[in-house]
Amino acid sequence: MRLRLQVNGSQREAEAREHESLLTVLRERLGLWGSKNACEQGECGSCSVLIDGDLVCACLVLAGAAQGRDVRTVEDLAAGEHLHPVQRAFVDAGAVQCGFCTPGFIVATAALLRDNPEPSDAEIREALSGNICRCTGYGKILEAVHRSAAQGYTS
Amino acid sequence: MTLLAGGTDLMVDLNFGRKRPEHVVAIDRVPELAHLERNGHVRMGAGVTYTRMLAEDVGSAALREAARTVGSPQIRNVGTLGGNVATSSPAGDTLPVLAALDAVVVLRSKQGERRVPFAHFMTGPKKNVRRADELVIGAEWDDAGPAQTFMKAGTRNAMVIAIAGLALVVDRSRKRVGVGLGSCGPTILRASQAEGFAAAIFEAHGWDRHLTPSEAELKEFGRLVATAARPIDDVRGTAAYRRHVLAVMGERALSRVWSMT
Amino acid sequence: MTIAPPKTRLRGVVGESAPRADAPPKVKGEFVYGSDLSREGMLYGATLRSPHPHARIARIDVAAARAMPGVRAVLTSDDLPTREKFGLMRADQPVLATRVVRYVGEPVAIVAADDPEQARLAARAINVEYEPLSAVTDPVAALQSAAPKLHDPKDGNVIEDVRVVHGDPDARADVVVEGEYEVAMQDQAALGPEAGLAVPGPDGSVTLHIATQWLHEDLRQIAPCLGLPEEKVRLVLAGVGGAFGAREDVTLQIHVCLLALATKRAVRMTYGREESFYGHVHRHPARMWYRHGATRDGRLVFVRATIVLDGGAYASSTFAVVANAACFGGGPYRVPNALIHAVGAYTNNPPTGAMRGFGAVQSCFGYEAQMDKLAAALVIDPVELRARNALENGDRIVTDQQVEGSAPVAEVIRRCAALPLPPQRSSNDPLELPGGAGNLTHGEGVKRGVGFAVGLKNVCYSHAFDDFSTARVRVERDQGGVVARVHTAASEVGQGIVLVCEQIARTELGVQRVIVETPDTTIGSAGSSSASRQTWMTGGAVLAACREVKAELVTRARGRRLDDVDVAELLDTPVERVVTHRHRPTEKRNDTTQNDGHVAFLFAAHRAVVDVDVDTGLVKVVQIATAQDVGKAINPLAVIGQLEGGIAQGLGLAVMEEVQLKDGAVRNASFTDYLLPTMLDMPPVVCDLIEFPHPDAPYGAKGVGEPPTISSTPAIVAAIRAATGRALERVPVRPDDIVFGASSHSGWRVAAGDDPRGAERVR
Fold first, then answer.
1. Which of A107, B38, C67, C692 would suit a FRET pair with A141, their CA atoms being 20 to 30 Å apart?
2. Which stretches in chain C have pLDDT values below 50?
3. What is the ipTM of this complex?
């Protein structure tokens, strides 16, 4: 089936099979490899994207059901070499190791800070509990979220 | 024809290659399914997400507590009441609440609307009385007041499928007690003996009063909750643990709601 | 002669917490992992796996699969170019099952098709007739004489058998404690799935882009199975989404190359999460019996242990895991007398192999539980008992090897114990209590416990393995000025070896701009990113190469000090050196495992504070404190990241992570049912990095990756014991173990005594 999506601000068209997820279409058809495929069942958050502003796992969105929607992926955040403040904070805080979970965390953190610019530790932990990281033990990720909050994430 | 609401159940089957439905109809953007009315009686559309249950007054504190335990923020943003009801997993987190509330499932087809008490809706694991031509359009229940709670046991602090779940509703104005149990039988179970036991205590002491339950009463209530379970051993937990933890949850739930008026 | 420009202070030298060069592409989603690889017109591979733990293959019919649309190749063992087998330490595994399958999930056939769905459906359409054979899925049962033999019958299912005999094992002690312990199967659960892209060359060669821990070892195993000389197979490291041991073995490497060679097309294979659970090796489950003896004043007299490890259907690295379990089975203590007997057995379970901590994790759970038992029997504080027996420089571990250079065990213990404890619980928010979001307790039933544990492990390869790493360092002048390029084959798996190489080169050469190039097999081997060894080995190789480059620059400076010269001037031609670095030789293991088998040792201590809801058996870990002997922190931030990440994996093993098997099949091959710690499960970590430089290591830096995973698990379990009073002899601790306190042993158990074959059947 032919899909029309608004991805990162541009109209995109792609072919999708009936059973395919938005994640598959973003990665394999549109070349947006930033959203990662780690569990395929919404248990790890590595494929987090925004759909009409809501944080979702792209692996749990049927591609066909995303027709006509506004999709924002991790690729939407940096402006060329200029990192988004959340991305900068993850780099500086040492929150990146293998980095496979990182794009999902970046998108989820940006969504969190949009809704709650100064989250407490507890609020961060709850908001990011759907994103699994196997490398860092989360300590530096928590720090990165605080850092980006302190810098005003929209800067 | 396969219906897709939030997609959190169906997509897993598609991604793992377990299902290849010929047609999928996405109903996640049907505004009529996202209604929510409260007026002593709650009518919740099938399309209401868990996130909305947390953000808005949905006429059930227990439902709100249940919604908080569902998956992750990502899941709660898309998963819906209707999806939970239609999938009918014994581990569906909102289902013990619907059972305890004596909720009614509203189904609609071209032939019209059909209202099925939740107690008669589920017939087995992922099985229910919905016909292929019907759509779950929502659920309804009487606003039961503040004396209600939900809890679930799982070996992780978030994003975990329940080993066992329990909802307790004490509707002081209608003088009824509802106890719904999840993940401990082929369907959501009601602990009717426990309900009767608690109702008798309220009856004896007055439905509208704060009371401090005795240890013995709490223990007996918990025991009766556990006897209602029909648990099995599975990958998430043992039958023995399920019975044990249901008794603990029963005790704790009753001691929590006792003072809520 | 021009005057050298004023030197600006270098940023990102050894000892600084420099940011990672690979972090910006990773945060932008631009970093290319194995599963992100693609080529125009590539095919997709799929694997058909055995549903049986042990069966004879009577017949395979691929006709239907071959006839399906889009299918370009279907290969079974009949189509293989050679009969070569593969394996990390013993080539015992067929590329595709030949006549017999030995575990659920063993690859039987592979398919390439135009799209992944066609490949998957074609694999499913292959008709295999199996004749089930009797299976053995318990490692102790596998050692019994009546058990079916899975490989060479004369080995009796024994993959490896290691005895450590030290001093007089029959020595007598005032106080003796005994226990049986069990460690379940843990999954590495790297988030990046197994993935590779094979591109055939016009000359019959193949280039494999692969996420792996060791390019050259993959090459050594792959080439013969393809029937090609090594020169015809080139490996390039793809981005690695975590490894933790799971990428030390060959998984899809040979399959994807075979498909590319058969179709003359580029082929990508990527495992889904379910397949990943079957596709890679897991941590060895262990059954252990321990007996410790001590004097009345708390000096260890002897340790006896029998350890049986489940090697699964193929050997993988079982040899080294068994050796580690035995060699480090006495713990970081002075133990004058010991008899430790460890055996790894073939079973019809999925193969087990490397995972962070590698043998040392299993025995540490046993001996640290024993140390607490001993402390209780002696009425000595458990931390004090450990300090009293702590190894010092010059002491010998149970393999009779002297610990040299850096053994601050008492210091590690003392400084860990001195770290601040968390405040008393003040909140009744369920999210901060056991059960978390489940709203199970608002404080009811919650008890706090504190536990302590210490562990040790070797760094680098042991027992006479030729351990080396090769580095090429080139300094040249380009439009941007002076640049140093560092090329090695060391796999960056997330741990930060790119930082180590970069910071060492910058420090040694005084050049700000350092580029660490993509690892491949055009340079010599770096060995694997495992055994906590890359800082020591590849860091050492880079250091040595830099010093040779620098010597050449000094020559070119003709008597002037390099600080006074513009280095760019010396680079009319680049300076390049390739150096292979080896650590001092180690000895081959002898019969009693009494010699210098290891190059050096790593030590860490952990203190855990937990809240346990004793009525529901759920646990919330409140804080982990750790002190670790790191030698020297090349990048303190990255070191702390290793400590915290390793602790999270130790926490997982303590309270939630288990690959559950039934008749050899994985019952929970998904992230829904194989639970990993979330941000709500992982507590704050307070840490103290102890820097006693090791004289043989670059800048004194020892490896850091594994110790956090070794003693964190027993510390957490000790804390749960303290809170509950339960014996808890098995990890992960299940709610049942806490609320019922029943014996957690099931199936076969290792009998008390020194014979791993001595066993009894429970229930």
1. C692
2. 1-2
3. 0.98
Tally Cβ neighbours within 10 Å of residue C551: 12
Q: Of the given ranges (A74-83, B21-30, B179-188), which has the lowest mean pLDDT?
A: B21-30
Instruction: Determine whether the interchain pair B235/C436 forms a contact, defined as Cβ–Cβ distance below 8 Å.
Output: no
pLDDT at C762: 59
Inter-chain touch C439–B159, beta carbons under 8 Å? no
pLDDT at position B212 is 82
Q: What is the pLDDT of residues C17-76, one digit of tens each?
A: 999 999 999 999 999 999 999 999 999 999 999 999 999 999 999 999 999 999 999 999
Measured CA to CA in angstroms, residue C277 lies from B12, B135, C186, C649 at distances of 17, 37, 11, 17
A103 in any annotated domain: yes
Q: What is the pLDDT of residues C618-659, one digit of tens each?
A: 999 999 999 999 999 999 999 999 999 999 999 999 999 999
Domain containing residue A145: 85-150
**Is residue A79 included in any domain, yes or no?**
no
User: Cα–Cα distance between C413 and C417 in angstroms, integer?
Assistant: 6
> Is residue A146 in some structural domain?
yes
DSSP assignment of A19-63: T-BHHHIIIIIT--TTS--S-SSSSS-TTEEEETTEEEEGGGSBG
B residues 144-173 lying closer than 8 A (beta carbon) to A: 157-159
Q: Which of residues 39-78 of A touch C (CB under 8 A)?
A: 39-41, 43-44, 46, 73-75, 77-78
Q: A61 and A94 share a domain?
A: no
Last residue of a domain, one of A18, A53, A73: A73
Give me the pLDDT at residue C760, please.
Answer: 66
| Residue A155 banded pLDDT, cuts 50, 70, 90 | very low
**Do A106 and A129 belong to one domain?**
yes
Please give the domain boundaries of chain B with CATH numbers for all domains: 2-142 (3.30.465.10), 148-257 (3.30.390.50)
CATH number of the domain within which A89 lies = 1.10.150.120
Provide the number of CB pairs (under 8 Å) joining chain B to chain C: 97
Number of neighbours of residue A85 by Cβ within 10 angstroms: 19
Domains located in chain C, CATH noted = 23-31+468-582 (3.30.365.10), 34-133+193-240+247-279 (3.90.1170.50), 182-186+282-461+592-761 (3.30.365.10)
The set of residues, in sequence order, having a beta carbon less than 8 Å from that of C585 and lying 6+ positions away, is C464
Angle in degrees, CA C624, C627, C628, rounded to 5: 120
A80 within a domain of the structure (yes/no): no
**pLDDT, tens only, A100-143:** 999 999 999 999 999 999 999 999 999 999 999 999 999 999 99
pLDDT of residue C750: 81
Residue A63's CATH number = 3.10.20.30
pLDDT of residue A40: 93
Mean pLDDT for B57-61 is 93
Residues of B in contact with C739 (CB under 8 A): 241, 244-245
**DSSP codes, B93-126:** TTHHHHHHTT-EEEEEETTEEEEEEHHHHEEETT
Predicted pLDDT of residue B259: 82
Q: Is C360 exposed, middle or buried (0-12, 13-18, 19+ CB in 10 A)?
A: buried
Element containing residue A150 per DSSP (H, E): helix A139-150
Cβ–Cβ contact C98 with B under 8 A: no
Q: Are residues A7 and A42 in the same domain?
A: yes
Residues A93 and A135 in one domain: yes
Per DSSP, B226 falls in state: H
Q: How many CB atoms lie within 10 A of CB C381?
A: 14
Residues of B in contact with C744 (CB under 8 A): none
Gap from A77 CA to chain C (nearest CA, Å) = 8
pLDDT, position C56: 98
Contact A99 C670 (CB under 8 A): no
Instruction: Decide which of A73, A94, A122 is a domain's last residue.
Output: A73
* Partner B contacted by C751 (CB < 8 A): no
